[in-house]
Design brief:
This protein has 49 residues and is mainly alpha-helical. It has two helices and no strands. The two termini are 18 Å apart.
Length: 49
């Protein structure tokens, strides 16, 4: 996946925060983005090594 498609995939994930939350990430959607990034980084590591 090229950089533009990766970017477009990420910006589709809503990442609004919850200012009343005492944890970070403060919303489930922020966790979803974090999980997506972790998965992609793991795949890149396997691909590159």
């Amino acid at each position: 996946m090229d950089i533009l498609n990766r970017f477009l995939k990420y910006i589709k994930i809503p990442t609004n925060s919850n200012s009343k939350s005492k944890i970070t990430p403060s919303t489930e959607t922020q966790w979803n983005l974090a999980k997506e990034l972790v998965q992609e980084l793991q795949e890149l590591y396997i691909y590159n090594h």
